[in-house]
Structures are given as C-alpha cells and as structure tokens.
Design a protein that fits this description.
Blueprint: E1 9-10, E2 19-29, E3 35-45, E4 54-57, E5 62-68, E6 71-72, E7 76-78, E8 81-84, E9 92-100, E10 110-114, E11 117-121, E12 140-150, E13 156-159, E14 162-168, E15 173-185, E16 191-194, E17 196-204, E18 210-218, H1 226-243, E19 251-257, E20 264-265, E21 270-274, H2 287-302, E22 311-312, H3 318-337, H4 340-362, E23 374-375, H5 384-417, E24 421-422, H6 424-433, H7 444-447, H8 449-452, E25 458-466, E26 471-479, E27 494-501, E28 507-508, E29 523-527, E30 531-536, E31 544-547, E32 556-558, H9 563-572, H10 576-597, H11 605-616, H12 622-629, H13 634-639, H14 646-663, H15 665-674, H16 685-708, H17 712-723, H18 727-739, H19 745-756, H20 760-771, H21 779-787, H22 798-811, H23 813-816, H24 822-837, H25 839-846, H26 859-871, H27 878-888
Helix pairs in contact: 1-2, 2-3, 3-4, 3-5, 4-5, 5-6, 9-10, 10-12, 10-14, 12-16, 14-16, 15-16, 16-17, 16-18, 17-18, 18-19, 19-20, 20-22, 24-25, 24-26, 25-27, 26-27
Bound molecules: phenylalanine (PHE) and zinc ion.
Zinc ion (ZN) binds at residues 299, 303, 322, 325.
Length: 889
C-alpha cells in the first residue's frame, strides 16, 4: 500500500532499464506470519543506456542481506527502492534475502494467505511485495523456484513451468523445485501452496505433443471444475485452429482461490482464478456463469501468447495484451456458440456490456485513452476502456483488413516479436505491414488515434433521396466530445458496416456512384473525415438505412430514424445486432422524453404491437427475444442525458415495465409455457435462451400479478423456485418474486439462504440480488445496511464486499442516489473502510462518483460533499487518492 501523494507517471518518460536480470533462483520458506525469501539473480548491465545505480523495487519487505558475487556490498534504501551505487561493470550475481508477511497481506497483492493456503498475485506491481526486483514488464528472466513448507498443511506446492523434483525434509516439511524455461516478466510469476486436489486431463495437441492439464481446487469443489476443464480443452483447440498458436508447455495448471481482486490471472503455466470465475455446477451457477467461465478460462489461456510470449514494454501498453486477448476470447465464444443467431446474441451482450461500463467511463472524470499518457496508480487502469474498448479497436483492424488479413497480421506479429516486450505501435505495424493496399494502410496514423484519444465519438447520419436521379446520399459527420485533458480531437477512422432496406423489408443492392455494379447488400464504408458523403445509385425509393451493423465501431450513432423506420429494421433487418438495436431505440424513444419532462409514461400501440410481434415470432430465437424485450438499463438511460435524475429514470423504467407486463400478459404467459426446458441441464445457447425468456416472462407475469393483487403467478413462481432443477431457473424465480416485491419474496430468500449456506459463491448471489432489488421508499437501502451486519457478510473477501456494496452503489442507482444523501454517506464510509483493507477494491468503489457533475440537484451537491469528505482523509492509498482527485478536478 503506497500512501501519501504518489507521483504522476508519464508514458513519454519511458527509459529502458539500466540493468537486465537474466535468471532468478528463488527459494521460499513458507510460513503464514513470516516467509523467508532468498533471491539469487544473474544481472547484466544494459549497454544501450548510460550507466547508473541499480535500483530495485520493494514494498513492505524486511531486508536481511544483500550480496554481490558472494560479498556484502553497500546499499541504501530510498523510499520503496533499494539502491546499489557501485554495482560491478561486468555481469554479476546479486543475492537478496528478505521476509514478508503473507498473513497480514489483506491487499491480496504479492504473497498472501487464503483459506489456509498461500497464493500470489503479481500483476501489475505485486512482485515487489515478495522480494526486491526490477519489477517492470520489460525485464524478462528465467525463473527457478524452490518451495519449502509444512507437508501436512501444504501438501501441494506449485510454481510456473515444470516440476523438476520434490521430496521430504526434516520436521514434517517438504520441498518442490520448479523451472520455467520461458523468460518472463515478474508480473507473471506465481506460486501456490495448500491442501488442494486436482482434476486432471492428458491431451495430445495437433503437433503430436502430450500435455497435462490440471485444475486445482479445495477438496469439496472438484465436481465444479468439469466445465472449466472442458473450456480449457476447447480453448487450446481453437487457438491452434484459428491462429496456429499451440500450447507451449508440458503442463498447464489452473488454481482456484476465493480471495482474489479480479477475475483471474494468466501467470505462465499457472493461471490463478477467483473461484467465482472457475467453479460452476448446474445447481449452483447460472447459464450466464457458465458462459462467463468459458470466456475467462479462454481469456487466460489466450494470454499465453498474447501477453506472455509477447508481453508489454510498459504498463501504458496494457491494452496491447488485454484488448487483444478480450477480442480473442470474444471471437472464441462466438465460434463456440456456432449458430449465426447465437453469435449475434454474444455480440449483443458484449456491446451491451461495453455501453454499460465503458461509455460511462469515457464520459466521466476518469476518461482515458486505450493507451493512456499518464497514471498515478496502474491498478486503476484495469478498466473497461483498456479491456473492452481495446477489444473493439482490435475488432476494427479485423473489419478493415478482413479476417484472413488479420490472421496474417497476427502471424507477422509473432514472427517479429516472440519473446519480446513491445508496444501498441508494434502491433499496429505488424497488422498493417501484413496487409499492404488494405483500407488500413492508407490511413494507419489516423487509425491509431483510437489509442491516443479518449472519449466516445459521435456519428451523425442523415439520408437525402433524389427521386429523379434515383440516388440516395448518406451524409456522415463525426465529432468527439472533450475529455479531461483533451479538448480538441482529430477525426478518427470509423468503419461503418451497413446495408439498405426497402420499406417492405427487402435488402437492396448497394452500388456507389462511380461503381460499375452493385457489390452485394452489405458493405463497410470508412468514415475518416469530419464530414463525408456517400451516394448510392439505382434506388426507387428512399431506403431505410441499417448503419453500424454488428456494432462495427465503438461510437454513439445518431441516425435520425423515425419509429416507423426502426420498426422496419426490427422486423426485417438481416443484421440481428441492428434488429436488437432497433428494439432498444424504440424503448429509449419512449423513456427519454418522460424522464426529461417528468410526465407520466403511456405506452403506444405501435410499440406494444412491435414487441408483441417479437415475442410471437416463429423465426426469432428465444435468447434474442429476451434481449429485445429487456429494457435499457437505468445506467444506459442516464448515459443519454445531460442532467441525470436517477429517481426519475427509475420511475419511468418501472412504469414502462409494468405497462409492458400488462399489455402483453397473454403473450408472456404463452412465452413462459413455450420455453420450458425438459431433461438434463445443458448450458447450450438454445436451452439457455429458452431459460432466459422463460425467466423474463415469469418476471413480467409476477410483476403484473402483484400489482393487480392476483396470487396465482407469485404462487407459481414460488413453486418453481422450490422445485427448480438448476440455478438459472431457481434464481429466475427468486428474482421475479424479489423484483415484484411479492409477499413470498422473503420466505423464498430465507429458504434460499438455508439451502446454500455452505456455498459461498451462491451466498454472494443472495447478497447481490438483495443489493440490486428495485428500490421503493428506501426499503432496499435499509435492507442493505442491515445485511452488512449479517454473520455471512465480510468486507475482507472481495467477492462478498462486491456482492452487497457494489450491487447497491454501482448497479442500483435508485437505491443509492437518495435525496437525503444517505447513500453517499454509506459510500464514503465503505470507501474509507475498504481502503484500509484493500486499496484496489476501494479504488473500484471510489469510481462510483465518476460522473457526479452530471447529477441533478440535490444529488450533485451531496455527492460533492461526500467526495470532499473522502478527499480530506490524509492517508488514502494512491488508488483511492487518484480516483477522488480526478473526480474533484
Ligand atoms: N491480467 C488479468 C487478466 O486480464 C487481470 C488481472 C490484473 C488480474 C491485475 C489480477 C491483477 O486476465
Ligand atoms: Zn487479460
């Protein structure tokens, strides 16, 4: 934990290290209270840069001795650095001995204990909390690791690479020796020691090599690892097939731990996972959990090439590995979904997530570029912008050079940079150089503004039809609003995938003026100027434009379409993403005016008929229907407004939901009945789509019934909750009762707790559901405060803290933003409390106030007061300090 005013670090200040560390021999004597670490490093001066002292990072360590070539040497400690002024010119051996205190490490960065075992987390700068080191990603070394620990308490001893030797020692202790042949940055180091069991699988990959795959968990959790193992096997096969990237290790291990700051970590050959991102069974996890775990297992596995074999030169390049790896896991999930409609569902979910998380970030105090120019605390930059927007940038390369061109670019990237620590520019160059003459090659520099400019570009599109010339001209304009520190922006390169429809719904051939013939019914226009026009010829009527198909660029589109035109798209567009988008736009067109005016909402028949047609369609699949009939989230609605009144938004959405429930009651009932899934559980897209629609239908039916005082549907929901054969249905029924505030909600919640009291991940769901229940008269807020006292609640476990507190503060705007400011007081208290335990988690929570300046009064002033209160605390972590300072400036 670094305290006080930490300095701003600038990308432009990057300097290569003065020394390289080529090999490291680590020895650990593992004890929870005090672990002894001996590190023997082979060090070399970097001849490319000027001489200077050797400066090693170290935090919260007790230094015991420093030897150079076996002799003691003079050194000094400067802040968190160990400085050796007179290191030899020639290569030398440096030996350091220190201790650290895993048991006291509640920050969960470095070496810590959890559930009676030892675990490490070294990204981004955790290795320096284990021993003194050049803890930066461009210093890559070969690691040998000797672990010694009590054999009874820690029968399993793991580290990166291959197991060389293990055996017994005196006093009930034992040892294991590991060697990782691949040079790696310190952030990819890992060790695990504990009483764990493994699911094992031997596989032979395409090249004929044999590999051992292992998933280590605590004894009772073994049966919840089958899906993760299957996902790993599928990921390995996919990366070989799609990108010709093989598994390079004899042994690939995954370990689950229940105290973890993030989802998972790609340590070389030894991935460490939050149990919430690893363990599933039909009885304890939902369809969404199954999909998420498949994606995370894939993500970490894919890092083995994009991140580990080729890593980042410095942390400003974080998106080089994260954006690319998210793109890869998204592509993998789409390929696993197989059917075109299931691919589209995945794309819709990804875009919904981008808009819910990244767009707000781009319009708030912490807005930053995909490749930021400065930071105070790197932990604050594991963000939706680096990850999800970064993935969209990679997707745009693929759109511009084509799928094959992109694969060629990846091949060139690995040919050039395998074993190196590189930059986003190196990636851009590889994709570009592999694709001469592509749409990218003529505008590479402009394209790279996606890395340097923060903010979500706005694209305006308007059509002009000329009946006599039979032409239709599309006028496109782009603008990127100012973000902190970036007032003026240059035009970006925006691929606009598009098609044109007749009003009767036919896909029209696309021929641009000057072309000899039409080129199909879909194409990609490239917008790279502030304003640009494209004229299509041979049209007999003004077409309906379907723009930004598949969400071909991370922008906000204003296409000026009327409701009638949106209804054409909803019915006929060949692009499923834009069909869904039309459903959301139709909903927004009804919500936004009443939120702005404060008037009562009354749904019109055009909208209701449109939604009814979706629900009744025999062509659309259930997963799509559920997405189209789900109203935009309150957060996304807030995003559309200049002044945000969370209570008004909540009221409008509540009313609309109720009217939709009522108007389509018979159809909801029919949908509920038609979407029952019989037989054994499978999380395949068809079954999970049916469950999603049945759950939504049930939610609507219970909502309507509670309002009209009818007991039938609440009773049925309770029955379904009791009898459910899987968590998706059980949770769906419970959610329906809780969200409708049915009288049966409370007994159901109690029963749920009793049923799952020994399943921490399910208890997280129990807290989370109560934290995000729709607010009414402050009851939800009061309940959350009460739940903080529940014996199962703890701030120390990040999953548990997030389940209750983040659910309220991040995902329940109406419960959080109160006219009496109690929500903000609660927030400030929790930020301060958490900061003393775990600055990374506290930093996340601090971000809730990112967009406080857009709040209506009285929220705005009260939010400011709460921020000022946190800011006044003198010893904040650099994590929280940076977030709060940026919010206040
Ligand atoms: N690198 C991890 C991932 O994206 C995320 C992570 C970052 C985990 C920092 C822990 C700490 O896969
Ligand atoms: Zn990652």
């Amino acid at each position: 934990m670094r305290e006080g005013t930490a300095p701003l670090i600038h990308r432009e200040d990057y300097c290569a290290p003065v020394y390289w560390i080529r090999t490291v021999d680590l020895c650990f004597d593992l004890e929870p209270a005090k672990t002894l670490v001996t590190s023997k490093m082979q060090i070399e001066r970097n001849s490319a840069v000027a001489h200077g002292p050797l400066r090693l990072h170290g935090e919260e360590l007790t230094l015991l001795r420093v030897l150079i070539n076996g002799e003691s040497v003079s050194f000094r400690q400067e802040g968190d650095e160990l400085v050796i002024d007179n290191a030899p010119d020639a290569d030398f051996a440096l030996e350091i001995r220190n201790t650290c205190a895993p048991e006291k490490n509640t920050a969960l960065s470095g070496l810590y204990t959890s559930g009676g075992g030892f675990f490490t987390q070294c990204e981004a700068e955790g290795f320096r909390r284990i021993t003194y080191f050049l803890d930066r990603p461009d210093v890559m070394a070969v690691y040998s690791v000797l672990l010694r620990a009590d054999k009874a308490r820690y029968p399993v001893l793991l580290s990166n690479g291959n197991l060389l030797e293990q055996g017994a020692l005196d006093n009930g202790r034992h040892f294991a020796k590991w060697h990782d042949p691949f040079p790696k940055p310190s952030y990819l180091f890992a060790l695990v020691a504990g009483d764990l069991v493994a699911r094992e699988q031997r596989i032979t990959t395409r090249s004929g090599k044999d590999h051992l795959l292992q998933v280590y968990v605590r004894r009772g959790d073994l049966e919840k690892t089958e899906h993760a193992m299957n996902s790993l096997i599928a990921s390995i096969a996919w990366d070989e097939a799609r990108f010709k990237l093989p598994l390079d290790l004899e042994r690939f291990m995954i370990v689950g731990v229940s105290d973890f700051n993030m989802g998972a970590m790609e340590n070389k050959g030894l991935n460490i996972f939050n149990t919430s991102a690893l363990l599933v069974s039909p009885a304890t996890a939902t369809d969404a959990d199954f999909n998420r775990i498949e994606a995370i297992v894939a993500h970490e596995y894919f890092h083995n090439w994009t991140g580990n074999r080729v890593t980042c030169r410095d942390w400003f390049q974080l998106s080089l590995k994260e954006g690319l790896t998210v793109f890869r896991d998204q592509e993998f999930s789409m390929d696993m979904a197989a059917a075109p409609s299931a691919r589209a569902v995945k794309r819709i979910e990804d875009v919904r997530n981008l808009r819910a998380m990244q767009f707000p970030e781009d319009s708030g105090a912490m807005a930053h570029a995909v490749r930021p120019d400065s930071y105070v605390e790197i932990n604050n930059f594991y963000t939706p912008t680096i990850y999800e927007k970064g993935a969209e940038v990679v997707r745009m390369y693929q759109t511009l050079v084509g799928r094959e061109g992109f694969e060629k670019g990846m091949t060139l990237y690995f040919e050039r940079h395998d074993g190196q620590a590189v930059t986003c520019d190196d990636f851009a160059a590889a994709i570009n150089d592999a694709n001469p003459g592509s749409e990218l090659s003529t505008r590479l520099d402009a394209f790279k503004r996606w890395y340097s400019q923060a903010g979500t570009p706005r694209v305006q599109a308007r059509g002009r039809f000329d009946a006599s010339a039979r032409t239709w001209t599309l006028d496109l304009a782009q603008a990127n609003p100012p973000t902190p520190g970036q007032d003026d922006k240059l035009s970006q390169v925006i691929p606009v995938r598009m098609g044109l429809l007749s009003h009767a719904g036919a896909a029209l051939p696309l021929q641009l003026q000057g072309e000899d013939a039409a080129a199909g019914t879909e194409r990609v226009l490239v917008l790279d100027k502030a304003e640009q026009s494209f004229t299509f010829v041979g049209l007999d009527e003004a077409p309906v434009a379907s723009l930004l198909r598949q969400f071909s660029a991370p922008v906000v589109l204003d296409d000026g379409l009327t409701d009638a035109e949106l209804l054409v798209l909803l019915k006929f567009d060949t692009d499923a993403f834009n069909r869904w988008e039309a459903s959301q736009r139709l909903a927004l067109n009804r919500l936004l005016p009443v939120v702005r005016s404060g008037e009562e909402l009354t749904l019109d028949t055009a909208y209701i008929d449109g939604m009814r047609a979706v629900l009744r369609s025999d062509q659309l699949d259930s997963a799509f229907k559920a997405l189209a009939l789900t109203l935009p989230s309150e957060g996304y609605i807030a995003e559309q407004l200049d002044v945000i009144d969370p209570q008004r938004i909540h009221a409008a959405v509540g009313t609309m939901q109720l009217q939709l429930a009522r108007a389509l009651r018979d159809d909801w009932q029919a949908a509920f009945e038609a979407n029952q899934v019989a037989g054994g559980y499978s999380a395949d897209p068809v079954s999970s789509g049916k469950r999603a629609l049945a759950n939504l239908a049930l939610q609507m039916l219970v909502l309507d019934a509670v309002q009209t005082g009818n007991d039938i549907w609440p009773g049925r929901a309770y029955q379904r909750f009791k009898d459910a054969g899987n968590m998706t249905e059980r949770m769906g029924a419970l959610t329906a009762l809780v969200f409708a505030r049915a009288g049966l909600a409370q007994p159901a919640l109690e029963r749920f707790h009793a049923l799952f009291k020994h399943e921490p991940l399910v208890i997280d769901k129990w807290f989370a559901l109560q934290g995000r229940a729709p607010e009414l008269d402050g009851q939800v807020f009061a309940r959350v405060k009460q739940l903080m006292q529940h014996p199962d609640f703890s701030l120390k476990n990040p999953n548990r803290a997030r389940s209750l507190i983040f659910s309220l503060c991040l995902f329940n705007p109406a419960a959080f933003h109160r006219t009496d400011a109690a929500g903000y007081v609660f927030w400030a208290d929790r930020v301060l409390e958490l900061d003393a335990i775990n600055p990374q988690v506290a930093g996340r929570l601090a971000r809730v106030m990112d967009r406080w300046t857009k709040l209506a009064e009285p929220y705005r002033s009260a939010a400011h007061e709460a921020l000022a209160r946190v800011a006044a605390k003198p010893d904040l972590s650099s994590d929280v300090r940076e977030v709060i300072d940026r919010a206040l400036n």
